[in-house]
Automatic annotation (TrEMBL):
Keywords: DNA-binding, Transcription, Transcription regulation
A Pfam family assignment: TetR_N
The protein, known as: Putative HTH-type transcriptional regulator YxaF
PANTHER family registered for this protein in UniProt: TRANSCRIPTIONAL REGULATORY PROTEIN
Length: 205
């Protein structure tokens, strides 16, 4: 039985949402197509009618419109200033609830190590999310793009470390420290001057 284009798009969106939950919860490499389709309530045989490969699914899932990171879910308040938006973003992103529910949150901290080993399309989707978040922070808080990118990296890395430590109290301290550092950075009206010549350091890894 053939279905219309609308039905096919609905099914594709269903698979994308299921992949987001499964990949965040179990990891990309540990999750097969069958697990994703089971989460979507569909038969595994129908997968390739929508995606050429599992990696193609990964890239599509990371696309900003599908990934829906927390920054995009901040409530739109007509009375909120740009600075208040950034503060709300930091409070939401670097929170215990976001740490404890990776399957419902931003895909970047949950999947960044696997994205680093993926192919070009996956990395391109990842890059689009990173630059999109940085652009939103830059527009709202001012300052340079480099500072906004550093705040995104601090959020993603800080949340990943907070999730990975065994001691819950230490995880809370990490989240709080990252929030404080990001907020202090935003409080600076001007970015610190860059040294003309950086001192060379030996690789430590």
């Amino acid at each position: 039985m053939r279905y219309g284009a609308g039905r096919k798009e609905e099914t594709r969106a269903r698979i994308l949402k299921a992949a987001g939950r499964v990949f965040r919860r179990h990891g990309y490499h540990a999750s097969g197509v069958d697990k994703v389709m089971e989460e979507a309530g569909l038969t595994a045989g129908g997968f390739y009618a929508h995606f050429a490969s599992k990696e193609a699914l990964f890239a599509a899932m990371l696309a900003p419109t599908a990934a829906d990171p927390p920054a995009a879910r901040q409530p739109d308040r007509s009375d909120a200033t740009d600075r208040e938006w950034v503060e709300a973003f930091l409070e939401s992103y670097l929170s215990a609830s976001h740490r404890d529910k990776p399957e419902d949150g931003c895909p970047l901290p949950a999947l960044v190590s696997e994205i680093a080993r993926a192919g070009g399309p996956v990395k391109a989707s990842f890059q689009e999310i990173v630059r999109g978040l940085a652009a939103r922070i830059e527009r709202s808080a001012g300052g340079s793009e480099d500072r906004a990118l550093a705040i995104v990296a601090l959020c993603v890395g800080g949340l990943g470390v907070a999730r990975s430590v065994q001691d819950e109290a230490l995880g809370e301290r990490i989240l709080s420290a990252c929030r404080d550092l990001a907020e202090r950075s935003l409080a600076d009206t001007d970015d610190p001057p860059q040294p003309a010549n950086r001192r060379k350091t030996k690789d430590v890894f």
